[in-house]
Amino acid sequence: MNILSPGIYLTNRLRFPAKFAVLAIIIVIPLIVLGLRVFNSLNASIDTVAQERIGREYLHVMTPVLRLSMLQRAATNRLLAGDASAAQDLASNRTQLETALGNLADMDARQGRLLETESRVQRLREGARSLMESLKPGLSQDEAFAQWNEQLAQTLNFIYYVSATSGMVLDEDYASLFLIDLSTIRMPREINVAGQIRGIIAGLSTGQGLSVPMRGSLESLLKIELQFRAELEQSIRLLKRRAPELAARIGDPIASATSTMDSFRNDLHAYVKGTEFSVQQGQALSARGNAVVAGLYKAQDE
Q: Cα 97–98–102 angle (5° rounding)?
């Protein structure tokens, strides 16, 4: 007995309009289901693209906050080390930092709900204001530096959080995934540790050496910088396997910036471990520290 016999018998008993209706149901229902799935998939893709766009906008406004926070830390360290000329830089940078934080708060008010940022931006803003307002005569240089380091760590954590909630870390394209990794994790960490090194040596501009605790902190930061650099270079090597042209385009500026860091590191080691210090040499090293951080920021922008 043919397994299709019941169906054939049924269709033979149906008139043409009924047969047409049955065939239409058999064909149309799967097409409707398939169409709904495609429609839902397209909507999901559109939502994902929109969230990634918002994530990139956040990173765009976060970069000045990160950079200016590093400069505020460095200027604070200089002032507490006895460099009176840092007061003007401190006031000017504070105005710019408050403006950058205001821009971030404005954007968060518009888009924060989509990325579930909750009160994170408000806490960042309050933390920065508290540190800037707490700067008074007699404040410990080491304590102020540590507090700014914690503020910068929270800023970086927010960058990582936004990159995750915006879906940027879930990008399926191999090259895009590594670019996201470089721009939201590897480069900010390298810039942050270079900024910490610059902040410590800002005190050298007074012509004095570093205290024993500050020298210990500097050595630790230099070791951390080498570790972060190795991870950064590994990420570029992995990208080179799949996208050699892209890796070369973004790798060359980074290599140039890290080469400048190596030269700066060698001269810094020689100066700190020496016995002769001068205002001129200290200011020159401090200026080179600024150039190193600026070079890393330029490499990230490219």
A: 115
CA pair distance 232, 35, nearest whole angstrom: 44
- Whether pTM exceeds 0.85: no
Q: What is the full per-residue pLDDT of the chain (302 aa) written as tens digits?
A: 456 566 566 566 656 666 556 666 666 677 676 666 655 555 544 455 567 788 888 888 888 898 899 889 888 888 887 888 888 999 999 999 999 999 999 989 988 787 888 888 999 999 999 999 998 878 888 788 888 888 988 888 888 788 777 776 555 565 666 666 777 678 888 888 888 888 888 777 777 777 788 888 888 889 989 988 888 888 888 778 777 888 888 888 899 999 999 999 988 888 888 777 788 888 888 888 888 988 888 887 76
How far does CA 149 lie from the centroid of its chain? 16
- Token code pair at residue 207: 């012509």
- Run of H or E including 294: helix 279-301
Domain definitions of the chain by residue range: 53-170, 171-302
Exposure class string for 88-98: b at 16+ Cβ within 10 A, else e: ebbeebbeebe
Per DSSP, the three-state class of 296 is: helix
**C-alpha of 14 from chain center:** 68
- Rounded to 5°, the CA angle 142-143-146 comes to 85
Question: How many helices and strands in the chain, by DSSP H and E?
Answer: 10, 0
Whether domain 53-170 has CATH 1.20.120: the reply is: yes
CA–CA distance, 147 with 139 (Å, rounded to integer): 12
Q: Which of 198, 225, 218, 194 is nearest to 297 (CA)?
A: 194
Distance of alpha carbon 240 from alpha carbon 233, whole angstroms: 11
